[in-house]
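Lay summary. Proteins are chains of building blocks that fold into shapes, and those shapes determine what they do. In this project we predict the shape from the chain. Here is one chain we studied, written as its sequence of building blocks.
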Amino acid sequence: MNGTEGADFYVPVSNASGVVRSPYEHTQYYLAESWVFGLLATYTCFLTATAVCGNLLMLRVTVEHEELRTPVNYILLNLAVANIAAATCGYPAAALSAFGGYLYLGQAGCNFEGFYCTLGGQVSLWSLAALLGERALVARRPAVKRRVRRRLAVGGVGVAWLMAFSAALPPLLEISRYIPEGLQCSCGVDVYTNKPGLENEAYVLYLFTLHLAVPLSAIAVCSVPSVLVLLTQQEEEEGETTRTALTLTAVFLACWTPYAATTWHVFTHHGDAFSPVALTITAFLAKSSVLWGPLICICMCKRFRKCARRTVHKLRTGKELEDEVGSASAGP
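And here is the predicted shape, written in a compact code that computers can read:
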């Protein structure tokens, strides 16, 4: 066998030489050099700090400026909340485990990280589906009332959280489980074993069909009118919003697709050898998705960028930005 299965873990290394130890009790430096774990810990701390600061700024800018309170921004705010939840609740556990070289927070810490990372990823994925759905609606019916768009956006946010909880909760209810993955310093859904009584296979199939294939199909369908409208878009603001939505979705999928593809391969090839380093790289690439939302909004949205500049200036000096005040108070 190409892996070693324990009571609550699966290490992708054969224990023929007797080197494999429980990741809850012993350091895992036989899987990689200690500096690799240190690098992962530093990277996770960087992600946590930058993602929390960026997404909190995004929340504050949107709340402070009335012109940003649009249906699209309701969904973007939801993305920011999901990113903050994952970065503050899930990532510190991974950073601490990487610093120590093993999961000294135990099974409880593994469940905590796995739950919040799954929850945040699912909220983001379903929110992006809702975001492109709103863009597709505007593309097909440009005259649709803002009140209708607002209701649909709020409904999309609610569905995103409902679906995310239905995906992340079962492993805490002993339907499948969260276990260490890769270098054993982060946790995810158990796609590695067929432990009796946990319904691992049924849960993973449920996860990949309802919680991956369905939102991806919705994104694909809604992307078509969104892309087509860019080719004929006459209103600059709507075109800018659509480009931002498409870019956010593309970057999120670029971060998560390698991890999803790797875990699917592991799930469909139980017992085959796979690299713990490769799986860890894809897992930590997926974690980087929390970083990009604020950067993309600032770089691609002129109105958001202007509001963010005003907010940052006010935070630094306690005063409104002079040119903005002047332009706002200037008469015709």
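What the prediction tells us: Confidence is low (pLDDT under 50) at residues 324-332.
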